[in-house]
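Before going further, learn to read the protein records used in this course. The integers have meaning only within a learned vocabulary of local backbone shapes. The record below shows the convention in full.
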Amino acid sequence: MNPKEEETAGLDKVYERRGGILAVMSLSLVIVILNNVTLNVALPELSKDLKADNTDLQWMMDSYALIFGGTLLVMGALGDRFGRKPALQLGLIIVAVASGATAMYATTSEHVIFARAVMGLGAALVMPATLSVVVVVFPVEERGKAVGIWAAMAGAGAPIGLFVGGWAVENHGWEMVFWINVPVILLALVLGFFLVPNSRDKQQRPLDAIGSLLSIGALVSILYAIIEAPNAGWTSLETLGVAALGIVLGVAFIRWERSTEYPMLPIVLFRKMGFTMGLVAISLAFFVMFSFMFTQMLHFQLVRGHTALEAAIRFLPLPLGLMPAAANSDKFVAKFGSNNVVATGLTLITAGMLLFTTVEIDTDYVRIALTFFLLGLGMGLTMAPSTTLVMESIPEDKAGVGSATNDASREVGGALGIAIGGSVLNEYYQRNLVVPEGLEAQSAVLTESFPAAIQIGLEMGNMELIANARLAFMDGMVASAMVSAGIALMTAILVKLYMPGKTE
């Protein structure tokens, strides 16, 4: 058998096991997504056991997101250069080791924060590899369906992660949030070793070291500014200074990538409207979803009095809408075009957010569930076609960095959603909270923190304070949903006007 015949036979074998490969990539992807959200429901337990203050708790969450989002482009490029399978497996091993070590040895907040940062680095290796392997393995005629399934798992991972985290904390303590990773990762590693083929940039271009450093500096700075803005203030010197640094480094990155012979991310890709509008749609859709999910955990637990697990269960209509919509979006795209399908998805998101603005404290859960279902349908119809457009706009040898760019847009959008959604909520809560007579001395604490107001009300048996705090929170939550509706509608219009109906 000559080399060409051997290569053909190898490709045939890969094609035969493409279903198993997609399953492994989906499993690996879910691990990354779960780690982004499961810790949310464990924060109260961590606060008690490790005596963590609010700043510590915030950085337990944010250290993962900061390192993950900040290194995505570089890790995607490394996968292209040295092989996507090794990148995937190394990333999974890093996450597993950091998770197990945290569950066994963490005794301080600093231990958890550091471990989460390490897990973010591992996740940044895993996530771009999952999508780039899917793109390489599946032929063009099947790629839309495969990416749709990948996108379904990516979108459903967050609400499922809340459910898993709620179950783990309620039944086994915060350590189980980390232990869960280990057997799942071992399964992904074993299956991946036998099923997943290696692939890389055949041209073996040299690494873009300067571009890598500039991209890390820009993304980390921008994400840090977004994360810290609600605490430091959007107009504070810290926020503006770090944001300005991120913008300067971003401009420097663009200039360098345009001038260097072997760019990590060819800037010319942004001239393709499929690539650019796909990223815009993904980023702003995740803005809405993460903003909404952030407010709903507080809504279900502190306004409606549900446990973490009960709250997580109430998120399930979201993946029930998202998964079938994403998995079957390729059929709609083939008939109606990407722009129409994505614009419809964003319109459904808009409808869901507008419906939620009618929710009150005593509103039946059925209406809330419908909001989650509409959001899920809209996310499914938005994510999958947008992701397919992004990946089909780039050459196959850049699949890793293309996937990383797609993932980075999600991270930035999600971080902005939490930051801006949270800021709007806090602004309306502080403005509308009526402090009962006799509690004026604690006014600063009560207006600063909704959870603190509820806790103080419970300790004092002051039902008036609890009722007022819940009403003020609902005002902020509705205002946040209205902002999200406006963002989704604006994006729908842009997509309809500028996103191509078919791949360029």
